[in-house]
Task: structure prediction
Amino acid sequence: MNMRTVLSTLLFLVMFFTQLVFAQEKIPWADLSLEERQILQQLEPQWDNLSIERQQRLRRGASRWQQMQPQERSQARDQQQRFQSLSGRQQQLINQRFQRFNNLSQGEQRRLRNIQRRFQSMPEAERTRLREQFEQQIRQNNRRPAQADNPRTPENQRRIQEVIRQNQNILRQNRNQTPQTVRPSTPARPTPSRPPAPPPR
Result:
């Protein structure tokens, strides 16, 4: 009885996951709406070779594009052109960040979008200040591992300067004194030793 229950549960799970796999088949190009095909027309030749996840992502992007206002579309085009003008390494970094963002939970994604909206609504001067502060923090974080091996870190430099400052008076005194000629020491003459006095008789 117990073995039967386990087997039936396993069979049910196998059937369930098989249906899930079949439900996630790739999206045929013909199944896209006319608007989606127009937006994604550059991808038509390679559409069938894309993964299901990429197809779904592109379809969602096309749906968002349809809902955008003309100004939003213009901004999106500008962003795309800026992205295309970046080096391959920079594009790769952006893609990695995008994938990390997509792996976040819906709540985390929403939180980050809200932060981005607040940042965009700030005055330009404030945004510039925050951007510079962030970039400075990144530079400091990137420098830290190298400094661990480097004896000339700012902390060590500060200590060296402090020791020099503390000893400056001594250094000045030594500079102001006239140099004295040092004569080689002559060996001391041995003092003649007298024999002990004879005992009285």
Q: What stands out?
A: The chain has a mean pLDDT of 76. The two ends are 130 Å apart (CA to CA). The chain is about 70% helix and 0% strand.
